[in-house]
Amino acid sequence: MTPDASRPGSAAGPAPFASVILPALNEERYLERCIRSLLDGSYPLDRLEVFVVDGGSTDRTVEIAERLKAEFPCLAVLHNPQRLQAAAFNIAMRAADRRSQYLIRCDVHADYGPGFIGRAIQSVAATPGAAVATYADAPKALSCFQRAVAFAQNTPLGVGAAWYRLGGHSRFVDHGKHGCFRRDAVEAVGGYDESFSHNEDSELSLRLAQAGWKIWLDAGLSVGYYPRDGVRALARQYYLYGRGRAKTVLKHRLAPRPRQLAPAALVAGEAVLLLASVASTPWLLPACLALYAACLAAVAGYGALRKRSACVLLAAVAFAVMHHCWGLGFLVGVASGGGRQQVPPPPRSRAVASADVPP
Questions:
Q1: 83: exposed, middle or buried (Cβ count in 10 Å: 0-12, 13-18, 19+)
Q2: How far apart are CA 223 and CA 333, in angstroms?
Q3: Which of 149, 113, 95 is nearest to 34 (CA)?
Q4: What is the C-alpha separation between 273 and 284, in angstroms, rounded?
Q5: C-alpha neighbours within 13 Å on the C-beta side of residue 169
Q6: How many whole angstroms separate alpha carbon 347 and alpha carbon 58?
Q7: How many whole angstroms separate alpha carbon 311 and alpha carbon 304?
Q8: Cα–Cα distance for residue pair 247/252, rounded to 1 Å
Q9: pLDDT tens-digit profile of 110-166?
Q10: Beta pairing class for 110-112 and 171-173
Q11: CA 241 – CA 247 distance, rounded (Å)
């Protein structure tokens, strides 16, 4: 990638037309910051359309989007009765201008660096065989707990070998977190599966790969992502992550990978130990839990020293929540046969809304 890869257009013609898709549900805390970081003037607005696809927000999300339309004429608000992000993407894809060659799926819980849109388009256009150029997370935090979750989500203990979390260098990957899609490739495979509330990005990546396309992780496309801000929100997110992965595994008849089986094995193992403790060895479960907690505390302590932040000590809690909720969600998903996931209920208050929305 050349240093000027983010500059749109060339002597050969104007910049490609692109559609930016922002699924949203109660995002008043993050929406304006996200839109302004994307529309930073580096890409011509007359070659863009930006869809805020609202899933029935009860806060000021739609009001903020409507206000910003006066400043950014390329901005439009669409309504998503199904509320799920997979449906939001498909609604925007169908509504997109026929000139649009690229669909850029962005997370509202994020800040985007200068020239992001141009760089994303250049990345996928310059990579032979790629259907999507995905980005790496660069976690940001507005609270102490978010700092802890950000650390946990960017370590192998938290996410295994999820390269979009771990970063490093550009490469082809199995899947990524959103990104810039070739529209023709996504339309050819039917867009997102709208029965998924979570893991829809991984499932789409599988179908793209089956159709002969590749997924390119551009390490230069780092995005400032804001993790969940609270134990309840994190638990809900990872439970649904686990259920979503189970649905993908069952739909495509995949063998789960060791890093995906580990959280489920942890939960199942603890259940077995509980039975054993009740039956004959009452010390067994507490001893194993103490060892597990000590390992998490050691990693969190290392992180706190490395990051020079006492907040990161809470990563021990974040790890435990992520492991157990993902594992439980995966087991429940397998047991239920991967049926359609329930649409998450709307947050009950603005204080919860900013942190408790589908990822």
A1: buried
A2: 30
A3: 113
A4: 7
A5: 0
A6: 8
A7: 7
A8: 9
A9: 889 899 999 999 999 999 999 988 877 777 788 999 999 989 988 888 766 566 666
A10: unpaired
A11: 10
152 contacts: CB under 8 Å, gap ≥ 6: 158, 315, 318, 319, 322
Which residue has 């509504």 as its token pair?
95
* Pairing assessment for the beta strands 214-225 and 171-173 based on DSSP bridges: antiparallel
Nearest to 174 by CA among 109, 259, 232: 259
Bridge partners, residue 51, by sequence: 21, 76
CB atoms within 10 A of CB 280: 8
**Residue 301 exposed, middle or buried by CB count within 10 Å (0-12, 13-18, 19+):** middle
Q: What share of the chain is helix, strand, coil (3-state, %, to 5)?
A: 50, 15, 35
Q: Which two tokens stand for residue 102?
A: 């690229």
Query: Distance between CA 30 and CA 19 in Å, rounded?
Result: 20
Enter the pTM of the model: 0.81
CA distances from 151 to 40, 61, 223, 313 (A): 28, 28, 15, 10
What are the residues facing 21 on neighbouring strands?
51, 105
The four Cα atoms 291, 292, 294, 296 give a dihedral, to 10 degrees, of 170
The Cβ-side half-sphere exposure at 255, using a 13 Å CA radius, reads: 1
What is the pLDDT, as a whole number, of residue 13? 75
Q: Which helix (H) or strand (E) holds 266?
A: helix 258-279
Query: Helix, strand, or coil here: 47?
Result: helix
Among residues 144, 162, 142, the alpha carbon closest in space to that of 231 is found at 144
Structure tokens at 12: 């050969």
CA 97 to chain centre: 25
| DSSP, residue by residue, 13-41 | BPPPPEEEEEEESS-TTTHHHHHHHH-SS
**Distance between CA 95 and CA 233 in Å, rounded?**
31
Structure tokens at 159: 């996410």
Closest CA to 8 of 180, 223, 225, 217: 180
42-72 pLDDT, tens digit per residue, is 999 999 999 999 999 999 999 999 999 999 9
Distance of CA 12 to the CA centre of its chain: 35
